[in-house]
User: Fold this.
Amino acid sequence: MPLRAKVASSVSRTAAALSRAAGRGDGSVIGGWIGLKIDPDLLRNLAAGRAIALVSGTNGKTTTTRLTAAALGVLGPVATNSFGANMPTGHTSALAKAGATPFAVLEVDEHYLDRVIDETTPRAVALLNLSRDQLDRAQEVAMMAQKWRTALADHPDIRVVANADDPMVVWAAIASPHVTWFSAGQRWHDDSWVCPECGSPIERVGGDWRCTGCPLRRPAAQWTVEDDGVLDPNGDWHLVKLQLPGTVNLGNAATALAVAAEFGVRAVEGVPRLAAVTSVAGRYAQVERDGRNIRLLLAKNPASWLEAFDMADEAPTLLSINARDPDGFDTSWLYDVDFSPLRGRSVLITGDRAYDLAVRLEVNGVPFRHVRTFTEAVRETPPGRLEVIANYTAFQDIRAELDRVN
Ligand SMILES: [Zn+2]
Assistant:
């Protein structure tokens, strides 16, 4: 590395360590920010000489990044931004901290994918899905797909690993000459009813989809989820035992194996590594308290609510909703989500906007009880499993409350 980059990298590590010592999170954003101030090419310099995979999409990228890093670990040390700092400052910090590793797997915010591709020259890019992150951002889905498409067309040497079930992702990925398709399902269809190529309606039959006005259609997937395992491109089936819940995470595992395969990892080698991944940035964390086994699921947008219902067991469930700045102030998205899968479960609700949720559940025919606090919810639940599904700041509140007690 050039001297300037060495200095910048060292200062970046120190700043991150100081920030951690001061109790201000993991320090990766400030560390990266300072490093890039000293050497604007620092990310490029740190990426040079490493074989890199980027993972992007609206949902599932933190988990898929973790699983991919685990699978690539078969080959040697892997640098990764495991705290979910997924913008260039976070990438810079993660690579500076890791020192020289032959591999890196980086979670990338979908808005920054083109820039991070330019700066890191990845070997592989995984495209998971595209949906609205908040209600007022629905327009962004098509714009994002266009941005990805342009970036991939500009870098034809990248191996793209893309979700065949998401029409927006498919349209972006076909700009690349090297695409491996995986099938991870798409529960949320509301942002892809219209073809991004020609504007005609998209028709869906079972898991298949096709545009009614142009040749865009679902490509055949080489990596698929079957029962509780993954089918690889050779037709070999691998039992996948995860400590993460739901078929959503099996799909993430299939994606991770597909990406690792681009680096030469065989599925039989990668699969055992996936079982070692437990909680990801506090998500899916299980905590014992007063005889209750409490599991935390983060649901940050309409698509991820549907996924959380899939991951949660048929057990008493606490839903918590806030509408603070990071959550978006508008709660009308509640009407985009079908809560009926919760019928038949004992449902408790809490959070700043519990009353908005109450109205929504009433309309959806889901019986519920309101509790004022998380502690009250625990008291109201019989010993055994309690599933907690919360949006962003509500999730942070509950984690903070659990940390205080434990
Ligand atoms: Zn079309």
Notes: The chain has a mean pLDDT of 91. DSSP finds 14 helices and 17 strands in the chain.
